[in-house]
Amino acid sequence: MGQPQTSPEPPAVPSWEQIVEAHARIAARIHRTPVLTSRTMDRLSGAEIFFKCENLQKTGSFKIRGATNAIFSLPDEEAQRGIVTQSSGNHGAAVACAAAWRGIKAWIVMPRNAPSIKCEAVEAYGGEVAFCEPTMTARKETAAKIQAETGAVLVHPYDDDRIIAGQATAAKELHEEVPDLDAVLAPVSGGGLLSGTCLSARHMRPEIRLFGCEPAKADDAYKSIKTGRLQPLDSSDTIADGLRAPLAARTFAILRRELSGVLLVSEEEIIAAMRLLWERMKIVVEPSSSVVLAPLIKEGGVASIQLPARADGGKPRIGVILSGGNVDLSALPF
Amino acid sequence: MGQPQTSPEPPAVPSWEQIVEAHARIAARIHRTPVLTSRTMDRLSGAEIFFKCENLQKTGSFKIRGATNAIFSLPDEEAQRGIVTQSSGNHGAAVACAAAWRGIKAWIVMPRNAPSIKCEAVEAYGGEVAFCEPTMTARKETAAKIQAETGAVLVHPYDDDRIIAGQATAAKELHEEVPDLDAVLAPVSGGGLLSGTCLSARHMRPEIRLFGCEPAKADDAYKSIKTGRLQPLDSSDTIADGLRAPLAARTFAILRRELSGVLLVSEEEIIAAMRLLWERMKIVVEPSSSVVLAPLIKEGGVASIQLPARADGGKPRIGVILSGGNVDLSALPF
User: Fold this and answer.
1) How far is B68 from B322, CA to CA, in rounded Å?
2) Cβ contacts (< 8 Å) between B285 and chain A: which residues?
3) Is A282 within 8 Å of B55 when comparing Cβ atoms?
4) Beta bridge partners of A215
5) What chain A residue is nearest to B34 in terms of C-alpha separation?
6) Is residue A77 exposed (0-12), middle (13-18) or buried (19+ Cβ within 10 Å)?
7) Looking at CA atoms only, how far is residue B55 from chain A in angstroms?
8) Which of A235, B12, B200, B318 is the most exposed place for a label (fewest CB within 10 A)?
9) SS3 for A52?
């Protein structure tokens, strides 16, 4: 009584202006990755698919966008204390690389079961790896300890507006190149890439449909969107090693507002789509990337996401973000 | 006495006009492939390398350029009899694909030891595979027999000005994107890609240095350039299955005039460079492509090709053509 029944919708954060600023900050340091097409994939899907190839990005994934934006946003007096982060791999390599570009130190907390290729990448970029047990609690504690001891600035892999604004620049570039997309699909783990994708895509093409793609074995985003409440991540033993983190409240708030749905993908579908991308498109993608293709090439896949008919009568035009290409060639699943 | 001591230099064939016409004929049907760069490769080589990614081309190699130009150059009455060709793989797939685009039949003569992935590709594009023994004689005889029986038009993989003009469009695109290259390297087998590359590059940047790259195990181009006389191909048991054909007089005439040299690459260097391209650039290239990188990343590699100093004082800018990406993922050499 007397109190408002509902709180007002929070403002969209990060704002479009922050995304534009992020792009200006990072553009000269990163690759403007190509958007590839494939008649084979178009035939298999019945759609026109535009592949934004962040596997061809510096450090082998989109993560360099957010990391560069965050690290180059810091005032000098903060930056000089160095950076600490926790990462299953790609964010760690990106932070190590961006920190080296800025000439500052980076400590990367990684779970012991991270692929060795990702640990080696961190070290190759000059980062210092701090191993911990493969639990979110251990990762947070180890990062907090380093932060306390060194005064390093924590750059979270996704629960950070500077990171989200940076990741949003991939979809911004995709829309600059292909302005009339009907839908965009991106992988979802912690939600940094997907929430950034949502913000850019919604701003540039308000009527667009947006989907997350997630391993069925790590389906917290699916459950969270379905129930309207942030759900815990029960299990994460998927081959898609980049998709083993849970959503944050920050990313969930954006996804809840923008997503048309989350599409679940089986382990077999992930591996089959990955092999197809290698064989037919001649690009190396990691399992975490192939989740965006799998839903489109299965029987009835494009029909199931129920896109409105195009005014020009053409096939649906769908953008997908291939998030990374860091794979251990000595341990391929096919 | 009374007779000229030297015959006049023959005109450059195909002409620049034929290359421009070829590009206009094929541009809407093929991919304009991206030109990628990599700080890792720049660091390893001490140069700035620009990778023209024909592995990302339709049918997985540059061969679609020449095949499309040749097949769409034919008058209707010739085209309707169909096409016959001999190919170790990529040219066969390209002819099958371009013939299907034109709606005509294609017979592809292939050696029995061609990788199964390449045979399957020909069939997937609707081509008919005619197997023969893995000798140049058997291949020619089988193609001639089909030609005699069906009236099909023979489209040779490289001993054909229409093919050379088509292959030349890859270097044309590369120079349109990166106009100030100091050198271009391309693989050499029969010499279609390399001679076309020479014609485009020389026209667009007359002072450029041009190099062929060849497996040491199939070194007829090296010997031919070194001796100034067309040499036979003694052996061809290299892993680079796309580089097992000998030069033709037609391609040798161009290479002899334009090349600064042929760089030989060992089998181990081919495999190591291939793995490096997969791991660091996240692209699938076949062994025949990695011959262009190997000479640049070996100790003293760039110095050994003796490029003139740049007027701007910068590092050498080197274009390389990654020719294809058709690899059997079930039989990787690493």
Assistant:
1) 19
2) 282
3) yes
4) A265
5) A34
6) exposed
7) 7
8) A235
9) strand
* Inter-chain residue contact A31 with B39, CB threshold 8 Å: no
Residue of B120, B177, B282 for testing the chain A interface, max A β-carbons within 10 Å: B282
DSSP annotation string for A139-180? HHHHHHHHHHHH-PEE--SSSSHHHHHHHHHHHHHHHHHSTT
| Cα nearest neighbour of B322 on chain A | A282
- CA–chain centroid gap for A315, Å, is 27
User: What does the pLDDT look like over A238-265, one tens digit per residue?
Assistant: 999 889 889 999 999 999 999 999 999 9
| pTM of structure | 0.92
Q: What is the pLDDT of residues A146-180, one digit of tens each?
A: 999 999 999 999 999 999 999 999 999 999 999 99
Place of tokens 């980062």: A127
Strands B48-53, B35-36: pairing kind = antiparallel
- Measured in angstroms, the CA of B52 and the nearest CA of chain A are apart by 13
**Cβ neighbours of A279 in B, within 8 Å:** 117, 284, 329
Helix axes A220-227, A249-258, angle to 10 degrees: 60
**Residue range B132-170, pLDDT digits in tens:** 998 889 989 999 999 999 999 999 999 999 999 999 999
- Look up residue B92 and give its two tokens: 């066969």
Kindly list the structural domains of chain A, giving each domain's residue range(s) and its CATH number in brackets, ordered by start: 16-62+160-307+314-326 (3.40.50.1100), 63-154 (3.40.50.1100)
Q: How many Å lie between the alpha carbon of A294 and the closest alpha carbon of chain B?
A: 19
* Strand bridging mode A35-36 / A48-53: antiparallel
